[in-house]
What does this fold into?
Amino acid sequence: DLRPIETLSLKSRLEGNVEQVYVREGDRVAAGAPLARFDAIDFESALRSAEADGASARTAAQTAQWNYDQSKDLFKVGAIAERDLRATEQAAAAAKAQQAAAESRLRTAQSAARDTRIVAPVAGTIQFRRVQAGEHVLRGSELFTLVRSEILELTASLPARRANDVLYAGTPEACFV
It folds into this structure.
């Protein structure tokens, strides 16, 4: 018998409606080939919102840092009180924290938008297709089973008396009798 060395279970990383399925059972696919696509409107909208929040947070952090830098100069010449300097320092730190949070939300939204496209991680053959266009899929649901078929494993049965001949023949070629 010839069996594939590796079988991959491709699962959904998000919950949503499958808009289109591009492959059928038995189809050979290349690494990176599109297999299916989720309805991406909500995910793309969340991405655009996260991008806008990130830009706003960056601007706010730059402005807060500028205010802090100006306050340091004013404090050195005695034009403002120390508490005013500390207030601008805290505002700059808070703005940087908000920028970091916005960037994190942006990375999450980018990942979700990317996950709306299911692609083959390696070349192989679609063994099972467990999803149809229009179907609502939960996170973690198996979508496809992909078999890597470029390397196969040979399994064979031998009578015990022949197995000893193969094991002790002393050459690698003897293993392929």
